[in-house]
């Protein structure tokens, strides 16, 4: 099931965005642990690492949206359109 979802994510977004999205488990784990155990305290370094991970995810998403262009005509395309075009060639 995880492989199917991974391939689906690759078709919907670029491979770079899908890979960086996997690293979002670090800050999401921090949030989930804080909710489950409110007495749990995290080190400053762990919190900074989670913030940097979130910033990297946002940065990759915003820059990848501007870089997707068709190789033939030069117009902007969605990631799924790129996959379909490569398949039809």
Write out key terms for the chains shown:
73% helix; single chain; mainly alpha; 89 residues
Percent of sequence in beta strands: under 5%
Distance linking N and C termini: 29 Å
User: Rounded to an integer, what's the Rg over CA atoms?
Assistant: 17 Å
Give the SSE order as H and E letters. HHHHH
Task: Give a short account of the largest sheet.
Answer: none
Task: Characterize the overall form.
Answer: elongated
Mean pLDDT across all residues, rounded? Answer: 77
The share of residues in helices is over 70%
Number of helices: 5
Uncertain residue ranges:
none
Beta strand count: 0
Total domain units: 1
Secondary structure class reads mainly alpha
Topology diagram in text:
Elements (H helix, E strand, L loop, with lengths): L1 H11 L2 H8 L2 H12 L7 H24 L11 H10 L1
Helix pairs in contact: 2-4
Summed up, what is this model?
Helices cover 73% and strands 0% of the residues.
Task: Explain what the structure shows.
- The chain has one domain (2-88).
- It is 73% helix and 0% strand.
- The chain has helices at residues 2-12, 15-22, 25-36, 44-67, 79-88.
- Helix 2 runs antiparallel to helix 4.
- The mean pLDDT is 77.
